[in-house]
Amino acid sequence: MLNKKTFRQHFQVVHFIFKSAPPQTKVKPDIDDPNNYCRACQKGFSSRGIYRVHLRKVHQMMMPLLRVKVDHKQLPDPYNRDYYCSVCKKNYAPTWSYRQHCKQVHFMKLNHSSIINPNAEINVNDPDLYCSQCERSFSGKPKFKQHLARIHSSIM
């Protein structure tokens, strides 16, 4: 059974909906607070991103998007098994997320030849909709079948 606290936590975590700041608060939050601490609400946040979401949702603050400067002369290794982007100094997992990052941020053209486990046997009737060669799960059977047809055409 949900109580008021877990209900509020659900809205914060899942829907990014926060209780509004008290209207009598005259203290304004500092967007660039190095400790991700909201002076108005007297709350700390675990990351800068979550803190900024709080500022947007609770305090209706408009902020410029954070952009990491990327050196487009350097390119990450799209086959890195740790899914680590050496240019952005950031980890991505699973594989498709890392490869998506390589394509969208570094404008790399990648083909489907980077199948992680080319010798793995694919179960087309896998109840978990998991492709063992690509190490990827799918949210629905149509997407799983589409992936198998597009990437592993010899199976279908």
UniProtKB/TrEMBL annotation:
One of its GO terms (molecular function) is zinc ion binding. It comes from the Eukaryota. The keyword 4Fe-4S does not apply. InterPro entries: Znf_C2H2_type (IPR013087). The keyword Phosphoprotein does not apply. Residues 36-64, 129-156 form the C2H2-type domain. Keywords: Metal-binding, Zinc, Zinc-finger. This is C2H2-type domain-containing protein. It comes from Mucor circinelloides f. lusitanicus.
